[in-house]
Amino acid sequence: MRSKPETQSHTAATEPLSSTSMDPIFPLLRILPFGFLRPPKLRLKLPTLTLPSPMTVYALVLLTYFMVVSGIVYDVIVEPPGIGSTQDRATGSVRPVVFLPGRVNGQYIVEGLSSGFMFVLGGVGVVLMDLALDRNRAKSVKVSYATAGIASVVIAYVMSMLFIRIKIPAYLR
Amino acid sequence: MVGKAEPVNGSVKSGSNQSIPAAMQSPLKKSDLIPNLSLKTLKLKTKQQELLIRVSILCLVYVLAFITRLFSVLRYESMIHEFDPYFNYRTTLFLTEKGFYEFWNWFDSESWYPLGRIIGGTLYPGLMVTAAIIYWLLRFLRFAIHIREVCVLTAPFFASNTTLVAYFFGKEVWDSGAGLVAAALIAICPGYISRSVAGSYDNEGVAIFALLLTFYLFVKAVNTGSLAWALASAFGYFYMVSAWGGYVFIINLIPLYVLVLLITGRYSMRLYVAYNSMYVLGMLLAMQIRFVGFQHVQSGEHMAAMGVFFLLQVFFFLDWVKHLLSDTKLFQAFLRITVTTAIAVGAIALGVGTASGYISPWTGRFYSLLDPTYAKDHIPIIASVSEHQPTAWSSFMFDFHILLFLFPAGLYFCFKRLSDATIFIVMYGLTSIYFAGVMVRLILVATPAVCLISAIAVSATIKNLTLVARAKNKVTQTGFVRGSSSLKGSSKASLDQSQPFQRNGAIALLLGAFYLLSKYATHCTWVTSEAYSSPSIVLAARGAHGNRVIFDDYREAYFWLRKNTPPDAKVMSWWDYGYQITAMGNRTVIVDNNTWNNTHIATVGRAMSSYENEAYEIMRSLDVDYVLVVFGGVTGYSSDDINKFLWMVRIGGGVFPVIKEPDYLVNGEYRVDKGAAPKMLNCLMYKLSYYRFGELTTEYGKPPGYDRARGVEIGNKDIKLEYLEEAFTTSNWIVRIYKVKPPNNRWERCSIFTLGPHCAALPFSGNVSWLGRINFSTNAGIG
């Protein structure tokens, strides 16, 4: 509503050419500060809010999913180390331990992030497979999408199984 | 591709075993298998075949969901698990014995002595009433079953019902194929099984069914705009409110969903009808539950629903004005004023309500979901519960397996085909996954959403793959087939070159998909069998030769309490065991799992962490007759009271600053061996746990007094108890019960050297702890 007074600051007596406004305060404002103040001529436009496209939102959602599934809330609250360490009994040297042993509900930060990455990779693989099937693209692009998709899913599944087997030695036995 | 009626020629229905147009009805395979029966009676049309397949799949899934939860019943016996279900069982027993009126107005003096507890007004009655109704129904049909059997099997029964609701929900959101997959996934998903095994008689078993039912009915109402569905969803909401405190999730998710619909420009009359009916009727019904009371208009957690309710009225009003006005510019101005005014009025009302205290702020339990660090700093009781810990990746993997891959893929499909229903399922999935990340226990709430979205991914992918796999058949058919198939996606029908490669590739991928799903089924069954089927009240371990050893110490101790103590005896223990002691031991307890009174729990915590004489005064003031501790040093059981002891210190120290946590630690480390803090070695919990333990050899090759749960030899082996005496220790030393000795009967002549609470001649007798830890009292003459 602020852009309206600039057209009439020079002609305070005449009615504005735009439609009559139903704003009750506007006439008062016209008299009191803007009777003697002259607002400058600005070329301001109210930013038009457009809704983002579904795929943009999907990308953000994927990022959030990655963070949640990596256990970021666990990292913030429990504050585990980035990577664990254990001391070799024989030599006394300190070896890194990637997977927190012994508990199902416990992790180190790097372990969480890599597992989360695998999950997202698997999801993206399925998406790529669907993109390969459903579009009118060039055939080479479709083939590369399909290969990438299948490879992603296979890698993600194999790695996730490997991770869970390292973490829980008694898995599926 | 919705599973509705499609043109008969060349239509491909998922699951149909007829790939040739129905116009050319070739003899079916059935006729080859059963040559003697009449062909005409068995020749089902495509739609009937599809219906048969769907119904049989649903029946199999229903049975599967029930039987996969029966591991513990088959391994041990039909009993109630864990801690909370024992309270629910006790109240259900009371309900079936005394009737609903007594139950609704029940004041229980057997817990939280001496305060008592208004049970009728502080519980969610849905679960108990459901089990009682099933019990009365079976009794009416002359099945004489004990109420315990009904309680044990309520959760699996409702899990089966949840799979049916999931099918209908999937059908509503996507199509019937997705519904079937969703039902199958949710039947065996470990995230849901963990809280609904047979024996886990807890609110969540029924609440997840109510949650999914309410959501399904609401989405159906939004899709159809029918008043009947909206009112049905209000009744579903009422059932949810009566069943679980997690109804707050519904009353916040649905307004959020309405808000998102409004923002994305999907306001419609259907939405208006659905939300208004559901909100008003649901709110009125929810106020019938005494525990909820007037929270829907008074509590901050429910204000979002009210805000959206008024916002919808504003939208409707603006729509009506727009319909009346013909001048768009006038309407724009009017729109701006109204929206600004409405938001301003709403904000002012909220501010006034919050400032005046009428609208209570968010309670700690739910606030810690928005700010996870809150509980750790301010409310140790909430932070101490192991289920309230944040979730690590392995918990997600354990409970969801390949659904974690399919969830983002399903979200992609939903975003590709946005509609009112898919927006809802996306919002449900995202919010519930976030909350599942904050608290392990809430993986349960996320499970239906994850299963549904994954089902969408599975269904869409398999549909695409089968279409590619069958494309060759369709293209080589006569021309009229091509005309109809071109509707579905021209790229598939025009794959003339490299067709065998495409087809083989698609078949290989289909096999891969089935392999993944079979691995999912294997994983779920393994997890259910190994991790989620243990009744925590009975412990099992592998013996030296691989045989299974069962420790039934808890029930042994409670039964001893029931038979060997006077009926009005009061038992003090940590709050974990309160429900079990009241239900099975039938004795009054000081604190139990309801944890509604923090000061009372802190008093018990203080008693456990003080020296014996100070603790004796606290116990005398609470009229305690017996003390019960759980000790895992002999068996290596790690969830015993010594491991929980620091929480007792923290909670006690939160109310009584005389208890300081650093007193019990050595260099920040919690130890029980020789290097432990002196206060730790002499506090009541230590003494009660390790009394006479120093004489016991627990492991070959280790010194006597070796604590197998901590893995150290204890520091103080020579323990003498002055005010308590040992009453009972179970066969594996897991539960130990001590009797509190009454004060000295004889009027002792007190000198400066015999001080103590039992010395009646002291002019300021009663509280002599100000003298510090001088302990000169003699045991002479104490009977």
Automatic annotation (TrEMBL), chain A:
Q: How does it sit in the membrane?
A: Multi-pass membrane protein
Q: Which UniProt keywords apply?
A: Membrane, Transmembrane, Transmembrane helix
Q: Where are the transmembrane segments?
A: 55-74, 113-133, 145-166
Q: What is its main location?
A: membrane
Question: What is a single cellular component term in the Gene Ontology annotation?
Answer: oligosaccharyltransferase complex
Question: Where, per UniProt, does this protein localize?
Answer: Membrane
Q: Which InterPro entries match?
A: OligosaccharylTrfase_OST3/OST6 (IPR021149), OSTC (IPR042416)
UniProt similarity note: Belongs to the OSTC family.
Task: Tell me the protein's name.
Answer: Oligosaccharyltransferase complex subunit ostc-like
Tell me which species this is from.
Answer: Juglans regia (English walnut)
Source taxonomy: Eukaryota, Viridiplantae, Streptophyta, Embryophyta, Tracheophyta
TrEMBL record, chain B:
- The segment(s) forming the Oligosaccharyl transferase STT3 N-terminal domain are 56-453
- Which EC number(s) are documented for this chain? 2.4.99.18
Q: Which UniProt keywords apply?
A: Endoplasmic reticulum, Glycoprotein, Glycosyltransferase, Magnesium, Manganese, Membrane, Metal-binding, Transferase, Transmembrane, Transmembrane helix
Q: Does the keyword field hold Membrane?
A: yes
Molecular functions per Gene Ontology:
dolichyl-diphosphooligosaccharide-protein glycotransferase activity; metal ion binding
Where does it primarily localize? endoplasmic reticulum
Residue ranges of every copy of the STT3/PglB/AglB core domain listed in the record = 570-628
Residue ranges annotated as compositionally biased, kind Polar residues, are 11-20
- How would you summarize the oligomeric state and partners of this protein? Component of the oligosaccharyltransferase (OST) complex.
Descriptive protein name = dolichyl-diphosphooligosaccharide--protein glycotransferase
> What organism is the protein native to?
Juglans regia
